[in-house]
């Protein structure tokens, strides 16, 4: 080989990877992904459940403040919307009791609220990822009681 000035350029002796070497690397990466992937997604499910528990706790505190001001928890018909709007036109209402709108649960479903509750003054819960009663792990119901 020569360049424009007549000088010879050194020939490079680079070697590529063989198909076998590439396949071995791909198998190793696949094994690592098969081991790490499920553990990673399990942690995501746990964090969603922890987020739901924290939100239910926060909503419960807002409901308690509502009860202190008004004298009772909002009815099931009024729902959690009573924390941000005076839906009953109650003179004792001193809200809003939340800085933002009532959030959905981490699975983008509304929290379920019932007052009077079966487990206390009110029941506040999420049905989890599967949106069905019961379940385990990330499909487990997250409840206030």
Automatic annotation (TrEMBL):
One of its GO terms (cellular component) is plasma membrane. Residues 40-145 form the Type II secretion system protein GspG C-terminal domain. Keywords: Cell inner membrane, Cell membrane, Membrane, Methylation, Transmembrane, Transmembrane helix. One of its GO terms (biological process) is protein secretion by the type II secretion system. It is a single-pass membrane protein. Gene3D superfamilies: Glycoprotein, Type 4 Pilin (3.30.700.10). Pfam families: N_methyl (PF07963), T2SSG (PF08334). The chain crosses the membrane at residues 16-36. Belongs to the GSP G family. NCBIfam families: IV_pilin_GFxxxE (TIGR02532), typeII_sec_gspG (TIGR01710). This is Type II secretion system core protein G.
